[in-house]
């Protein structure tokens, strides 16, 4: 029983880990250009981030050459002035750098090498704690079609059937007289009685 419970617990933990891993999204900053000085300035990373949705638990990958660039998170004031003052944590100097998004809100990252930040090597993103809710569908109130008023139609009243007019000289219905059976003939009864007495006499003679 204990072994079964242990296997069950391990299975539940594995499922939770798989779900958590599946929920994470890995974002390669800049995609193919990586983390470098973009050709079109800061607009390059602004455009890249505008097409992405960043959630808690997602991972940012900054692809850069070690000793050529670095990355550090800074507050907005330092981001605007490209200053590493008041940095949030220490700069990551070894590339590629993986940063897990552990808090919601606005996040700002810069490169502290030389004037790389002033040249556009800076990134700002907004991290959401829950997926953005889709706009609810607009419900249109269906219009009830006007019901045409029923046209009044007068139903002709059924004419009562006319009573047949009796003919003056017609024959009147007569009931058939009930046939009363005639009483049995008295002579037949006498013959039958005599025959019965004869048979009875023979029968008594046989048993005596």
TrEMBL record:
Residues 1-23 form the signal peptide. Residues 128-187 are annotated as: Disordered. Keywords: Copper, Disulfide bond, Glycoprotein, Metal-binding, Signal. CDD domains: Stellacyanin. Residues 25-129 form the Phytocyanin domain. The keyword Metal-binding applies. This is Cucumber peeling cupredoxin like. It comes from Actinidia chinensis var. chinensis (Chinese soft-hair kiwi).
């Amino acid at each position: 029983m204990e072994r079964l419970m242990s296997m069950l617990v391990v299975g539940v933990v594995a499922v939770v880990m798989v779900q958590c891993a599946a929920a994470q999204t890995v974002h390669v900053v800049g995609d193919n250009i990586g983390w470098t000085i973009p050709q079109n300035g800061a607009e390059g990373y602004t455009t890249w981030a505008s097409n992405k949705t960043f959630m808690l638990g997602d991972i940012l990958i900054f692809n850069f050459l070690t000793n050529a660039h670095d990355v550090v998170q800074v507050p907005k004031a330092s981001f605007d002035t490209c200053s590493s003052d008041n940095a949030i944590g220490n700069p990551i100097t070894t590339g590629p750098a993986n940063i897990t998004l552990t808090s919601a809100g606005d996040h700002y990252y810069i490169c502290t090498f030389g004037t790389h930040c002033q040249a556009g090597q800076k990134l700002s993103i907004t991290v959401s704690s829950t997926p953005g809710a889709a706009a609810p569908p607009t419900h249109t109130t269906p219009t009830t079609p006007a019901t045409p008023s029923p046209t009044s139609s007068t139903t002709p009243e059924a004419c009562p059937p006319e009573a047949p007019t009796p003919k003056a000289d017609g024959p009147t219905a007569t009931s058939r007289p009930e046939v009363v059976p005639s009483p049995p003939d008295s002579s037949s009864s006498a013959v039958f009685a005599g025959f019965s007495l004869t048979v009875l006499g023979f029968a008594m003679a046989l048993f005596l």
